[in-house]
Design goal:
Helices cover 38% and strands 16% of the residues. By secondary structure, the protein is α/β, with parallel strands linked by helices. It has one domain. The strands form four sheets. The protein has a five-stranded mixed beta sheet. The protein has a two-stranded antiparallel sheet with strand order 2-5. A hairpin with a 3-residue loop joins strand 6 and strand 7. The radius of gyration is 18 Å and the shape is globular. 39% of the residues are buried.
Length: 244
């Protein structure tokens, strides 16, 4: 979907978090009210943190891991309040983020990323690129008492906060369906909305294999000097094309 655009408007890029995360942190201890969206979403974050603590951090069914990985996930999920933090762009280490390569960004591109990138998170709701966040393990598609399915539980407060932030922006949606389910867009309030899908050369919609390409596209958008739609049009990849 791409609405009529106003080319002078700023860009916003919506990304998922990553399953892979760097451990530890040396920034200030985490509080639910911290970060760009802490004021709007802090009370909801606190409810999830409390529920996770009461569940002992979650079981194999909830977290999707076992053995030492489960023990590690339970440990961090029961220690979120007051946990050490690091910037989101350092915390997230999965394929998308690795190929976007925040550590190699110029100061100018890093500033644009800080202004543009918004992450939809099962634990935190919304996260800014430079927000200081704790280590955690929780998918947006997870479901547990008394919260229920996180994408449904988050939808109203997350959409309210996100849509206010996106007003007047060119919105580039690079979210998987799991995260799109937590957000009800209001495209009439944006400069434009482009919901990007990666297409294999065969014509099939790409799956997990497109994660690396998604990171490369995000970096391309951040480095482009023209309009977001021109950047989407001129992006090239040996394996994938885009619909938006």
């Amino acid at each position: 979907m791409c609405t009529v655009s106003r080319t002078s408007s700023p860009i916003a890029i919506l990304l998922p978090p990553s399953e892979g995360k760097a451990e530890g942190g040396d920034a200030p201890k985490w509080r639910a009210s911290t970060g760009e969206f802490g004021k709007a979403l802090g009370k909801y974050r606190s409810q999830i943190v409390t529920a996770l603590e009461e569940l002992g951090g979650g079981d194999t069914k909830l977290l999707g891991v076992g053995g030492k990985h489960l023990a590690r996930a339970q440990e961090i999920n029961t220690s979120i309040a007051g946990a050490p933090t690091m910037a989101a762009h350092q915390r997230y280490t999965g394929v998308v983020w690795d190929h976007m390569s925040p550590s190699t960004m110029s100061a100018k591109v890093h500033t644009r990323a800080t202004e543009s990138i918004i992450v939809l998170s099962g634990l935190l709701g919304l996260v800014g690129f430079d927000d200081q966040i704790p280590d955690y393990k929780l998918k947006m598609g997870a479901s547990f008492a008394p919260i229920g399915k996180l994408s449904t539980w988050w939808r109203e407060p997350l959409s309210k906060a996100l849509n206010a932030r996106l007003a007047g922006h060119h919105v580039i949606d690079l979210l998987p369906n799991e995260h799109r389910a937590a957000w009800t867009p209001t495209p009439d309030t944006y400069a434009s909305l482009s919901s990007v899908t990666f297409i294999e050369k065969s014509g099939k919609i790409a799956g997990h294999d497109a994660k690396a390409a998604k990171g490369l596209l995000a970096r391309h958008l951040l480095e482009s000097t023209g309009s977001p739609h021109a950047a989407l049009e001129n992006w090239e990849h040996q394996r994938f094309t885009l619909t938006y």
